[in-house]
Amino acid sequence: MQARALAGLVTLSLLAAAPGCKSSQKPPPSVAAEGLNSDQVAFLRAAARGKPGVAEEFLGAVDINVRDADGRTALYLAAAGGHDAMVAWLASKGADLNAKETIKGWTPMHAAAAAGHDDVITVLAGRGADLEPKDKDGATPLNLAQRARHAVAAQAIYDAQNAGRDGANNPR
To answer: Which residues make Cβ contacts (< 8 Å) with residue 142, sequence separation at least 6?
Structure first.
């Protein structure tokens, strides 16, 4: 157990020291690897780190919608990490935009909203992701963005919801 904790600290310190890694940045979401083969783990980790070039190497061997032990897809991990280019790449390859993870019932849109990733929200909305899915507690991405006080992310969702409406809030 101590070795595992020490390995985690070493990993975090390496991430913090990596070129281009700001100390205020969070490390990429971890991948719950239980039950996955090495290609699946590598693909999910590439998505979590925003590395489409690396992820592409595994596309023939891995389903684009493979899930980790927590039910999170590559798209979810990329959205949670704020990697808008990775999100766009995965969406272009046919990733399920509305897949729910198994713990909270969050979609990639929930993950992006909760973390305040307005650029990811814009990409997901532009690709047709559901803007109002409800998690297991009934919360929508807009609710999560508002609770976390991510005003720009909340505005991105609001703007996407109203993109097809005129000033009278009527469908065009």
So the answer is: 113, 131, 132, 154, 157, 158, 161
Give yes or no for a contact between 152 and 117, defined as CB atoms under 8 angstroms apart: no
Say whether 67 sits in a helix, a strand or coil: strand
Question: Quick check: helix, strand or coil at residue 165?
Answer: strand
How much is the pLDDT for 147? Answer: 97
Convert the pLDDT of each residue in 136-146 to its tens digit.
999 999 999 99
DSSP state of 30: P
Alpha carbon distance 13, 63 (integer Å): 32
Number of other residues whose CB lies within 10 A of the CB of residue 70: 16
Cβ proximity of 22 and 56 under 8 Å = no
Q: Does pLDDT of 25 surpass 80?
A: no
Q: Measuring CA to CA, which residue among 11, 67, 59 is closest to residue 34?
A: 67
| Three-state secondary-structure class, residue 101 | coil
* pTM for the structure as a whole: 0.81
- 71 DSSP 8-state letter: S
Q: By the 8 A CB rule, do 109 and 135 touch?
A: no
